[in-house]
Amino acid sequence: LDKVRWTDVRDRIFGRIDPIAEGGREYRKSHEDNAGVTVYEGQGRFTGHKELTVSFADGRPDEVVTADKFVLAAGGRPVVPDLPGLEDVRYHTSDTVMRLDALPARMVLIGSGFIAAEFAHVFRSFGVEVTLVARSGALLRGEDFDISERFTELAAQRFDVRLNRKAVRVRSSGTGVAVELEGPSGAETVEADELLIAVGRRPNTDLLDVAATGVTTTEAGHVVVDDHQQTAVEGIYALGDISSPYELKHVANHEARVVQHNLLNPESPMTADHRFVPHAVFTSPQIASVGLTEQEAQARGVPYVTSKQDYAGIAYGWAMEDTSGFAKLLADPSTGQLIGAHIIA
């Protein structure tokens, strides 16, 4: 790889995404389909039972909105850890990193989940030297442990993977940033041109102060909903990342259809179906999963048998020279019903 036209790549992405976002905004504000819709562009916060106060950046007086029914679909945001020195250095999250003006020579990512795995792949593919800092002893620990183990092994061949490391401080280092770590062998320092924080996302329930209207949340901050996507307060529904631990677009789309139906048909409510939720990790190699992992089956005491097939042993894998990928299935030993499927390829 001699050169990457990074700004062309970036501008192609956001040249499509940004107009779609702006088009959606204008559609909601101006289109005849939404003649009965009032758009408030500000920060909403519950200040009482079914009472939402909206503050505006331009200094206008706050406005109070009340309603019999609310739908909470305010999503989530990247977690920014309480890391000494972070406020004094330039850093990125998944919301901002793809808008870089130029590719760095080196990037350090703090995190070990799917966000870190995907962005590590993106930037390494463009020639950036990538360091991954993980507090645990493996990457993608939320996947089946065989998948996690294989991906960790392969990632170490592409990136500088620092497992069992705790980031204790960040500081400026000339034109870049230095991350001070504590690890099994003592103190370490990793230097890079850019820092990406990728330690997860959190729902925006705190910004909305949902407790002020009686809506309850989980320990992780997600709104608690029933099978109809209704919260603990009758008439208040929630969908998407603000209530779903899956935090996946196709799940939010399903929940939106459920909420729409239940608002329009309260006499015959629809139930949300979260039994089989597939997901993928767009890294290299790519990963796909649905159903139980082996460790989840063990934790729940679910009887199971497993089967694992390396791609190298079949014609497709031979043709693609795939020596590292495999498919793993979990099944009920008495019925043969599949209860989990996991692929890395």
From TrEMBL:
Recite the UniProt keywords alphabetically: FAD, Flavoprotein, Oxidoreductase
Q: Which Pfam families match?
A: Pyr_redox_2 (PF07992), Pyr_redox_dim (PF02852)
Origin: domain of life: Bacteria
In what residue span(s) does the FAD/NAD(P)-binding domain sit?
Answer: 26-255
Keyword Flavoprotein attributed = yes
Which InterPro entries does UniProt cross-reference here? Answer: FAD/NAD-bd_sf, FAD/NAD-binding_dom, FAD/NAD-linked_Rdtase_dimer_sf, Pyr_nucl-diS_OxRdtase_dimer
User: What is its cofactor?
Assistant: FAD
Concerning Gene3D superfamilies, the annotation shows:
3.30.390.30, FAD/NAD(P)-binding domain
Q: Which GO terms describe its molecular function?
A: flavin adenine dinucleotide binding; mycothione reductase [NAD(P)H] activity; NAD(P)H dehydrogenase (quinone) activity
Q: Which residues form the Pyridine nucleotide-disulphide oxidoreductase dimerisation domain?
A: 277-345
- List its EC numbers: 1.8.1.15
What name goes with this protein? Answer: Mycothione reductase
Origin species, per record, is: Amycolatopsis tucumanensis
